[in-house]
């Protein structure tokens, strides 16, 4: 297995990064390190008002969600009801997983991209031309729940965490359906999200001696419908908004949510998946905790017929089975929206 970033940084004192981690700069990264401070404008969705508010509050929240998906592809969810203690426990257990010995992790190391438990470094070390400053653990947690045997307690806490976040996604998907002018249960029914794929991803970004030369994750969009992200107190997520990279600074006890490629396809391009990346820093280890929430693996995802009208709104994407898309995206280098480009008409 390729050396993890954690081992690289802990085994000796590093003054510079190995050449394999130096990211070639391209014009889209010109403002690297000069991100605009406009995080206060990132839309916020109050989950309590959306799900338990009055009819008027729900309608207003759905309208906020529509604008967030349309103009940003990204929003922050507050008042979601998941206890902070559960989130912290999950973050700590992920850190403990990365601390396990190589022998304890070997069963999961660099497995096939559709294996239920997989850990490794970079994005896909077998194909990455440059390595990213990131180690990861990816677990399929729905419709079948998997979990590593160690550390102790991981299984129980992950089960609870994933159940709670899936409930939030279910409610958000209903609201997104309505915001697109579809039946409330349209996404649930057409993409069989009751048996939808949920993947829990833990990302570890150890301190990096030359953060301006490396990236934790390259610019990319996510597969699936909605990705929920939380992190320890260290920031690093950036989103591309109106052609500029901006820091996505989390509000306390919130989830950052991004629109995934399959939402873009289903909405026939009305809601675009958002490009994002992770930057690293010299001083602190960052851990981010992601749940990727998608259709059923066997669902064929295509634009909703109601959003297609041959003259004004022709279909913009071919249908493709989610399993095939996922395998394609995860097996190749992660690069912008290159996977989505393959299904664009
Ligand atoms: O750690 C982050 O901020 C980004 C993680 C991410 O984009 C992903 O896991 O897909
Ligand atoms: Fe992502």
Strand order of the largest sheet: 1-2-10-7-12-5-4-3
Task: Name the CATH architecture.
Answer: Sandwich
What level of helicity do the residues show? 25-40%
Shape: globular
Q: Would you tell me the overall average pLDDT? A: 93
Count the E strands.
14
Query: What is the highest CATH level, the class?
Result: Mainly Beta
Name the ligand types: 2-oxoglutaric acid, fe (ii) ion
CATH domain topology: Jelly Rolls
Number of structural units classed as domains? 1
Pfam family, one: DIOX_N
Keywords: Iron, Metal-binding, Oxidoreductase
Domain Fe2OG dioxygenase: 195-295
Family: Belongs to the iron/ascorbate-dependent oxidoreductase family.
Question: Explain this structure to me?
Answer:
Belongs to the iron/ascorbate-dependent oxidoreductase family. GO terms for molecular function: metal ion binding; oxidoreductase activity. InterPro entries: DIOX_N, IPNS-like_FE2OG_OXY, IPNS-like_sf, Oxoglu/Fe-dep_dioxygenase_dom, Plant_2OG-oxidoreductases. It holds the Pfam family 2OG-FeII_Oxy. Helix content is 29%, strand content 20%. Helix 3 packs across helix 6 (154-179) and helix 4 (84-99) crosses helix 6. Strand 8 and strand 9 form a beta hairpin. The chain has a single domain (58-341), classed as B-lactam Antibiotic, Isopenicillin N Synthase, Chain (Jelly Rolls). The protein has 345 residues and is of the alpha+beta class. The protein is built from ten helices and 14 strands. The mean pLDDT is 93. 2-oxoglutaric acid (AKG) binds at residues 201, 203, 217, 222, 229, 236-237, 276, 278, 288, 290. The site of fe (ii) ion has 3 residues, from loops.
């Amino acid at each position: 297995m390729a050396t993890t970033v954690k081992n690289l940084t802990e085994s000796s004192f590093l003054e510079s990064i190995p050449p394999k981690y130096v990211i070639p700069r391209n014009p889209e990264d010109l403002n690297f390190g000069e991100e605009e401070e406009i995080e206060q404008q990132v839309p916020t969705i109050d989950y309590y008002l959306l799900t338990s508010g009055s009819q008027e509050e729900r309608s207003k929240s759905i309208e906020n969600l529509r604008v967030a998906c349309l103009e940003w592809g990204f929003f922050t969810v507050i008042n979601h009801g998941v206890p902070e203690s559960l989130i912290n426990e999950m973050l700590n257990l992920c850190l403990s997983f990365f601390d396990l010995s190589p022998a304890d992790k070997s069963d999961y190391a660099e497995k096939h991209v559709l294996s239920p438990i997989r850990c490794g470094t970079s994005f896909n070390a077998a194909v990455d031309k440059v390595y990213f400053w990131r180690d990861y653990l990816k677990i399929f947690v729905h419709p079948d729940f998997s979990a590593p045997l160690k550390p102790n307690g991981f299984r129980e806490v992950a089960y609870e965490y994933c159940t709670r976040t899936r409930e939030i996604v279910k409610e958000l998907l209903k609201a997104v359906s309505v915001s697109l002018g579809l039946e409330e249960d349209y996404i649930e029914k057409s993409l069989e999200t009751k048996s939808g794929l949920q993947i829990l991803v833990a990302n570890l970004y150890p301190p990096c001696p030359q953060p301006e030369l490396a990236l934790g994750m390259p610019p990319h969009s996510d597969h699936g419908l909605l990705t929920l992200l939380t992190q320890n107190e260290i920031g690093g997520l950036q989103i591309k908004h109106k052609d500029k990279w901006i820091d996505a600074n989390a509000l306390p006890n919130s989830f950052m949510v991004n629109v995934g490629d399959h939402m873009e396809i289903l909405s026939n391009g009305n809601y675009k998946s958002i490009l994002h990346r992770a930057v690293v820093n010299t001083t602190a280890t960052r851990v981010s905790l992601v749940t990727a929430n998608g259709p059923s693996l066997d669902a064929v995802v295509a634009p909703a017929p109601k959003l297609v009208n041959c003259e004004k709104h022709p279909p913009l994407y071919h249908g493709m089975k989610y399993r095939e898309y996922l395998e394609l995206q995860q097996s190749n280098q992660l690069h912008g929206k290159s996977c989505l480009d393959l299904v664009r008409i």
